[in-house]
Structure formats: structure tokens, C-alpha cells
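Sample 1 of the test manifest.
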Amino acid sequence: MIKIKNRSLVSITDYTKDEILRILDIAEGFEEDQRQKILRDYVIATLFFEPSTRTRLSFESAVQYLGGSIVGFASPDVTSVTKGETLKDTILTVSNYSDLIVMRNPMDGSARYASEVSPVPIINAGDGANQHPTQCLLDLYSIRKTQGSLDNIHIAMVGDLKYGRTVHSLVQALSLWNTTFHFVSPESLKMPSSVKTWVKKAGLEYHQYTDFMEVMPKADILYMTRIQGERFPDPLEYEKVKNAYVLDNSMLETSKDNLRILHPLPRVNELNEDVDGNPKAYYFQQAKNGVYVRQALIAAILGLK
Amino acid sequence: MNTKRTELKVSAIRNGTVIDHIPSENVFQVFKILNLDNTSRQVYFGTNLDSKKYGKKGIIKISNKYFENEEISKIAIVAPTATIIEIKDYDVTKKGKVTLPENINNIVKCFNPKCVTNHQNVPTSFRVIEDHKGKMKLLCKYCEKTMGQENIEFL
Ligand SMILES: [Zn+2]
């Protein structure tokens, strides 16, 4: 049973495997023919309680390609939010002006709460450190696109695996398929045990490494993440590891032909610019896929696809 | 027999409730969540009593008091091994282990300072789960973080 219409998307685990695949299939249709003006009579609200230009532009571009209109705000400083209005009141008010609300909010769990009080569907565009399901969908789309299928993929996740919410969601989602996980990180930023339990429960395998190069010949997908200095209690520890997980072009020599490199962007220094010219670099295309996926999600939730 | 020795150390009550098999270190937590430091009823308690099953245990006896389900849920969160014994006229009329409910609503606070429930007027809601070691954890419906017993704070 596929139930996407009129339902909020807060966390990737809200969707079944079939529902995820349905969104990816619809997104493929938008990649072939992006300008379908099916949203002409619709208004979409984008409420960004913290700025995230990249995500907001991607959503707004998706709405514009579909011919829809946008209301909303890009940061809370000019709105009643700064005057102390509750989240509930903002959502109830804005739901009078729109058919669907895209929300980003720094409070963990704010999207689930908004979905409970809102009469119109909510798409979570990031709730604090918790969930960002459209990032996960576009990652899945990119993996399927470059590998032909989501089955039997060896994915290497590299960098900050402890705090990186994108990798946590991606592990949860990929556990629906027959995936082998390779976790590459410094000792202090290893994948949390709750995420590893998830993998085990799904009957799948994971391997952990501190040496980046060990994983290179095994991976189909190399998922790079930022390592942020502020995550380390000890600045010396950060100095030690910050350059150990930087990818440059020469390191890709031993990698498989079908390997593709993904990154949620923006990058800092973990992806050397000399990788950009390598045909295995896929991160800018990945960002572009985000627009197709968001078009698909909005259209499906509004019952237009 | 252990029970006999326990009886000797903690006076019997005529009517009321005995909470037995509390992990020794959690006796005062049970005290606190049941607000027993503010009661006018007679309360007896003991800690570090010998127990065959648990090594050391604690016990609390409260005169003329029977607990509602919500209070028993609270006891179960801090003392999952506890037994509730109801006494009427020195006789045991009811005895049973506490059971954890599937969901705990609006009783405990989320330990995540960034959780929406700590910033907006949202009743908390947790699912009771077990981690890979079989330990009880509470999974916040909103921020999706799990917290162990050591982080539990009652509202
Ligand atoms: Zn929470």
C-alpha cells in the first residue's frame, strides 16, 4: 500500500521501501521532463526558521519548475517568530495561506510537532540535528541513478559518522536494501552504536576502518562528509585527524570503475578540487537531483502524480 | 529466609502498599517521584537489604495508600524490577510486578536540550524500547533521541 498523498514527510523512516521507490520513479520522470506546470493553482510555503540557502533554493526551484507560487521567509528575523509567536500559531496561520509547508527549524523534533498541528502536509527540510529526509531521498536517487539499482551496493561513508545526521538517515534507508556498509572515521567520530544496531537488525554487514585507503578498492559509492573542528573537545585531536580524511584525485587510482563520489555539500577541505574533473565525481549532479526529487515529493503529496 | 529478615528490619503495615525489590540505589528516586517526602502518611523504607535474586534491594512501605496506574508506570521507569504488594489488615490482597507501558506520555522530560518539547508547549511522549544489551530506553517521539535511566527527569 502506497500512501503518500496528503501525508507529511518528517523522517525517512515514515516511508516504506515502496513509497521511497515511488518517489524516485516520479523524480525520474521530472529528470526527463522538468518543466511540467502542474502546480499552477497551488501555493507552497517555505518557512526557514534558520537560514539554509542551499536547501531553500532547491525547494523553491522545484516549485517554480512546476509553475507553483511561493510564500514564506528565509530567516526568522523579519517575522512574528522573533516577537515570540509559538510554532503552533505560525503553522496554523501559514496553513491558511498555502497547500503545503516546507519547514526548516533548529529545534529537534519541531517537524513532527508541526505535522501534528498542521491541517496541511509538512515536508521537513531539516529539524535541528534530527532529520532531513529530502537529502536522504536525493542520495538514494543518486545511488540508484549511478549504479542502476539500490541492491547489493557497497557504500563507504567517510568522515564525521558520529554527528552527521545525513549518514545516519542514509544508513537507515539503505538498510531496506541488501547493502554492505563500510564506515571510515577517526576513532572519536565512529558511527554510534544505535545506528550499527539498526544495520545488524536488518541482517546486514558493516565494517569499520580508520584507514581511508583500505576501503578504496571495495566501494561502489564513496559518501564524503565534513569533519568539523568544533566537534572535538581537544583541538590537538582535531589537528591529528583533519587531514587523514581528505580525498584527492591520486587516491582514486585503486577504486572501481563504477565508483561515484557523493557529498551533501557544502564542502570545506575534505574534497580536493582536483577531484572535480574526475568522471567519478558526482556531487554537483547529486545536488541537481535534489530538485527532481523535491518536485516529485511535492507533486506526490499534493496528489498530482 | 530473606523475606523474614526483611520483615524484621522494616516494620509491617496494617493497610497500604509495599514496594519491594527496588534496586537499592534507586530507592530515593522512587521516593522522589512518588512525592513521599511531602506525605503525611507513615512511610518506612530500607536499602541494601539482602535479596536472593538481586543481591541488594530496597523496600518502601506506605500506610493507607494505594497507587494509580500512572504512578505505577513512574515506579516502573526507575525500578523496573519492583513488586507492588497491596496490604489490607495485614494480609496481602494483591501482588504483582510493575510493568512498563508501551508509551510514556507527559511524565518525563526529554533530556535533549534542543528538543522541541523543551521550548514549546508540547506534551512529551516516549516509546519504551530496549537497547542491544536489553536495557530499557525511552525514545522521544519528537527529537528521536533515546535516553537511558540515568537521564530520566520527571516533569
Ligand atoms: Zn526529545
